[in-house]
Amino acid sequence: MKKVLFLEDRPARQKESLPNKEADVIVLREMNGLHMPEVSDCKAIINNINEGVNVIGDVVHLIIIHESTLTPVGLNYLDKLCKERSIDLILFSGGIGQMTISDFGYKMVYLNVADLYTDRLIPFLKSYTEGNVAHILELINSRWKVSYLLLLRQLLSTKSIEERAKVKDIDRILMLEGKISKICSILQGIGVDEKSNIDSVTKRIRIELDK
Fold first, then answer.
1. In this structure, are residues 101 and 147 in contact, taking their beta carbons and an 8 Å threshold?
2. Phi, psi for 186 (deg, rounded to 5)
């Protein structure tokens, strides 16, 4: 069974935002594999994270945490920890309008709180703890591959612009190539490789959306 650490510093937000209010909170608290500390313990753990102190424990596969509670030190600490242990990370906040994804060292999703507390959350966490989730983007959409394809198309476009520039930034091009390679390795199972171009990726996006 996989372990999830859910750090919500404002429990009232869960009761207000989850579809079934208090009933959903009870389901979360009773879920095997999910540790959701009470508010005082939650804030103590977050404070330690912000001081760079390891209080996560040896076996955690996914951390869900309110991004606004983290200092730059805390964010850097989580980034290092997740890379070292291959821990998945979900950051949520009420102040963002567009979801951000990353898979460079570990899987990370940064999303609006309204996209976290939906009717997908409990089924996602149950599937995750049971080891049946291929990617944390399944929390948002079962068609998570499309998100990566859109990101890949954007990176290919940016790389093309950089390569056509009169003064080429070789370091930036190499960085883009590394990101493209990483995404292609994730999507290899659906026929995407490093030789893919914008047209072929666009075609694959349409295929995925039509499923």
1. yes
2. -70, -40
Q: What DSSP designation does 137 have?
A: G
CATH number at residue 67: 3.40.50
pLDDT digits (tens, 9 = 90+) for 135-171: 888 888 767 788 889 889 999 999 999 999 989 899 9
Domain of 134, in residue numbers: 4-141
| Burial environment of residue 91 by CB neighbours within 10 A (0 to 12, 13 to 18, 19 or more) | buried
Q: What is the sign, positive or negative, of the torsion defined by CA atoms of 110, 148, 198, 178? A: positive
Token code pair at residue 26:
């009870």
Q: Is there a contact between 139 and 108 (Cβ–Cβ < 8 Å)?
A: no
Of 101, 119, 141, which one is at a domain's C-terminal end?
141
Confirm whether pTM is higher than 0.90.
Answer: no
Output the CA torsion 73→78→79→84 (10° steps): 130
